[in-house]
Design brief:
By secondary structure, this protein is mainly alpha-helical. The chain contains 20 helices and no strands. It comes from Pontibacter burrus.
Length: about 425
């Protein structure tokens, strides 16, 4: 008998977790769930925390070091990286604007938000104390804090992820500047480490259905208490949250990218969408930019007329460093969780989310579920309770499919822009939508 695909297993785990949680509330099994099921959800969260630092470190070093093979094409590389970073920042800011306008986290009843706030009162007090301490420091202190005085101390604290990212960028650039024969074994080492970590991600995702079941069962029990009907409030608010994320993703595909394709790429956007459509559908079904990469390259070359010299560099790099959809989702999710816990994020905290989400997207693995791992980084850097991830796991699979579609569309958009500015965009062959 054919094994169910992972996303179906996760969806079943979600449904069973919600069902078990509501049944526990009805039958008085809340304590049993808290003692014997919920801890497995905590273990799943801890596994995600476990790989956050090594995943970012190895992925970033590998991605930056790969530029050494095309050092003579610095002009194309600069255009590509700057454009990727610009679109990522734009996506994060768009997400923050939407989540601050619609405030989905505040859709919880005041009573529930007070319960969440009390549950993590210690975290909130600690965050307030930290903010007060920061106010007494100089205006450049945030920049000072990015540079670690001890790498190994930074690596022991997921809240110091910006320091790890700084070192990874610094180290990757150094690998480009030293002689290739000296850099090759180091690059090969980190490439091997990166491959091993991605395999660990695969293993963790194998137990994801069980972790999701335990997380949601515990969440529903905590949320509903002895009143199963209270779980309906959770489902309604999650629906509102999903709508906000989807609006942002649709704005990227139907507002931001069309402007870039038409103004800079000087191409018809309808033609562009038709050409990239097969890759979009594969991205939607696999939730993996890496798995979709061959199809994205084929569509870009055959359907959009982009020269192979551009696609062979811009698109693989994009699958590693350009995660517009994921970055937008992270900004919405982070503020949503903060709103749900009654944590007010000031402008400085939200600018920190912009920086962290942008840099974390560079190190995000192009595999299903990597967005959640990167969200752990964003939450911890912003001082938002990581346990809040349980709130958004239920609809994450659907959103993952949609944000991956946005990710690869963004890759193709940048490839077209770079190709046009380099004079390497040619009349495409006949488009065949599969």
């Amino acid at each position: 008998m054919k094994k169910l695909a992972l996303h179906w297993q996760i969806l079943i785990g979600m449904a069973l977790g919600v069902g078990w949680g509501m049944m526990s509330s009805s039958l008085g099994l809340n304590q049993f769930t808290a003692d014997w099921i919920s801890p497995f959800g905590t273990i799943f969260i801890n596994l995600l925390k476990l790989i956050a630092v090594p995943l970012v470190l190895a992925s970033l070093i590998t991605g930056i070091a790969s530029l050494s093979d095309i050092s003579k094409l610095s002009r194309i590389g600069t255009k590509t990286i700057v454009t990727y970073l610009a679109t990522t920042v734009l996506a994060v800011v768009l997400g923050l604007v939407l989540v601050n306008i619609f405030e989905p986290g505040k859709a919880f009843s005041p009573q529930k938000r007070e319960e969440f706030k009390e549950q993590y009162a210690a975290t909130t007090v600690e965050k307030s104390s930290d903010a007060a301490a920061v106010e007494q420091l100089g205006p450049l202190q945030p920049i000072v804090d990015i540079v670690p005085e001890n790498l190994f101390m930074a690596m022991t604290n997921n809240g110091s992820m910006l320091q790890v990212i700084f070192f990874a960028l610094f180290f990757g650039i150094a690998l480009i500047l030293i002689p290739p024969d000296k850099a090759a074994p180091v690059s090969a080492f980190f490439d091997g480490v990166n491959t091993a970590i991605l395999k660990i991600v695969d293993i963790i995702m194998m137990v994801a259905p069980y972790g999701v079941f335990a997380l949601l069962a515990g969440l529903v029990v905590d949320f509903a208490g002895d009143d199963p009907g209270a779980a309906l409030e959770l489902l309604m608010v999650l629906g509102y949250y999903c709508i906000v994320v989807i609006i942002g993703l649709l704005l990227m595909i139907f507002a931001v990218y069309p402007i870039l394709v038409v103004v800079i790429g000087k191409s018809n956007y309808k033609h562009f969408l038709k050409g990239i459509f097969p890759a979009q559908m594969l991205a939607f079904s696999t939730s993996s930019s890496a798995a979709t990469l061959p199809a994205t390259m084929e569509c870009a070359e055959k359907n959009l007329g982009i020269n192979k010299e551009i696609t062979s560099f811009v698109l693989p790099l994009g699958a590693t460093v350009n995660m517009d959809g994921t970055s937008l989702y992270q900004s919405v999710a982070a503020v949503f969780i903060a709103q749900a816990y009654g944590i007010e994020l000031d402008l400085a905290a939200q600018l920190g989310i912009v920086m962290t989400a942008t840099l974390a997207s560079i190190g995000a693995a192009a595999v299903p579920g990597a967005g959640i791992v990167m969200l752990v980084i964003v939450l911890q850097q912003a001082g938002i309770p990581i346990e809040g991830i349980a709130l958004i796991l239920a609809p994450d699979r659907l959103l993952d499919m949609m944000r991956t579609t946005v990710n690869i569309t963004g890759d193709a958009t940048v490839a077209m822009m770079v190709a046009r500015t380099e004079g390497q965009l040619h009349p495409p062959t006949e488009i065949k939508v599969k």
